[in-house]
Amino acid sequence: MRKFVVVLLLVAIFAGCAQKSQTEGTKTEKPANPVEYGKVLFADASLGTNGKSCLTCHDPPSTLSGVGNKYSPKAYFNMAKKEMTLKEVINFCIEVPMKGQPLPENDERLAALEAYLRSL
Q: How far apart are CA 120 and CA 117, in angstroms?
């Protein structure tokens, strides 16, 4: 009986290890649609360093409805006290409230966030 319990425990341990190794290191798939990807990034706190995401300040996101038209091509952004493009505003929010690094102009994440905001 004791051998049976030991074997059963070993099987359970190995099964748990196998399940862990299959899922360990996998990431959520990035949506192919830039608007959907932007929506995912909007809630992603890893763009900054202080645990905040865009959604922290803009919940619900619909409060930004029309922002895409406003920043075409530039508009006065009160927090920065200057005219900015939508991409510049996104990077300002990543840098200042979220304490992150700005995204390069050609970064697909910046393009996706812009696409998402313009879709609202």
A: 5
Please classify residue 111 by burial: count the beta carbons closer than 10 Å to its beta carbon, then call 0-12 exposed, 13-18 middle and 19+ buried: middle
Summarize pLDDT for 43-74 with one digit per residue, the tens: 999 999 999 999 999 999 999 999 999 999 99
100 Cβ contact list (under 8 Å, min separation 6) = 47, 48, 49, 94
Q: How many CB atoms lie within 10 A of CB 40?
A: 16
Residue 12 lies in a domain: no
**Inside any domain, residue 21:** no
Question: What CATH number is given to the structural domain containing 45?
Answer: 1.10.760.10
Q: Contact, 67 vs 77, CB < 8 A?
A: no
C-beta separation of 77 from 83 below 8 A: yes
In a domain, 13, yes or no: no
Q: pLDDT digits over 81-104, tens only? A: 999 999 999 999 999 999 999 999
